[in-house]
Design a protein that fits this description.
Two copies of one chain form a homodimer.
Chain A (H helix, E strand, L loop, with lengths): L1 H18 L5 H8 L3 H11 L4 H13 L13 E6 L3 E7 L14 H14 L5 E11 L8 E12 L2 E10 L2 E13 L8
Antiparallel strand pairs in A: 1-2, 2-4, 3-6, 4-5, 5-6
GO molecular function, one term (chains A, B): DNA binding
GO biological process, one term (chains A, B): fatty acid biosynthetic process
Keywords (chains A, B): DNA-binding, Fatty acid biosynthesis, Fatty acid metabolism, Lipid biosynthesis, Lipid metabolism, Repressor, Transcription, Transcription regulation
Chain lengths: 191, 191
Amino acid sequence: MTREKKRIRQSLLIDYVKSKPFFTDEELAKLLNVSIQTIRLDRLELGIPELRERVKQLAEATQKKVKSISSSEVSGELLELELGKSGISLMNITEDMVFEKTKIAKGAYMFAQANSLALALIDAPMAVTGVANIKYKAPVRVGDKLIAKAELKHKRGNKFFVWVKIKNVTEEVFRAKFILVSLEDNGGSEV
Amino acid sequence: MTREKKRIRQSLLIDYVKSKPFFTDEELAKLLNVSIQTIRLDRLELGIPELRERVKQLAEATQKKVKSISSSEVSGELLELELGKSGISLMNITEDMVFEKTKIAKGAYMFAQANSLALALIDAPMAVTGVANIKYKAPVRVGDKLIAKAELKHKRGNKFFVWVKIKNVTEEVFRAKFILVSLEDNGGSEV
């Protein structure tokens, strides 16, 4: 019975790590209703690397897919990318990213994370931003880990409509709708 | 007659430099339909410093007015500020601000210029961004000098509606509408 339970739990753990690769051991423990120690042991047994290593592996594999901009120009770490479809990035908020007075992260950083992720998912040799509609929903502070998810909603001619949502753990802190424009590969023509 | 002409020209020059403090000698020469050399001599006679010095003087005097954020947090140089009303800033586009592939300035820089200028004109101890609607109208490249003008359109409770337009010389390259929210001075409460 216990062995059966363990088998089910480990199979669920494998699924979770695949679908939510940036969950911490603590979050995985909560999801599976076991102790953090159990998760660690399961990971060891199953050969699942720790969170930091998982993020690094994902980022390295994902970077190579970017076409429309240089992969180093994506703010934060690019964790997932399906060209022409969707992307996910992670950005850690550090001391230098917040306003001195409010200690709240400068809006330009979330903008850059969302905007560069939106551009990264465009399946064209080059692309630029045309329009952005943005909502800041909750303040972001030092130490926060922001997960941005971008999705291509539709495409008309050389215009790409991309929606991006940024979450701080489970709380949505930012959302943006972009219209991006792909360019011909001739060294930067007019938009 | 020539003396009269010179008197009128110099009086116009004084007005222009006051109303358009970031016009180059070349632009002033065109405006007054004289040679650049004439403008330089007029400036010398009238004790009007060169453009770079004028910008520096303006920026130093203006920075002291900022309340809602630290003046060093305004992107580019803050040239004019009327708290609760309007502001002007200048940003030079350098090599590190453009995308590698397109050589077009990253949208996040214009966003930061506009956003920080909009925040700077808020007459409150602290403010954050709530909403932004943005349009990129023309590509910006290395060497471009961007003049952003922000204007408080109206205010409702603790919400400030600020419009920002950025021009590259005479061409409008960017416009944004922000809704900013002023905060109580208690060290960063929820928005």
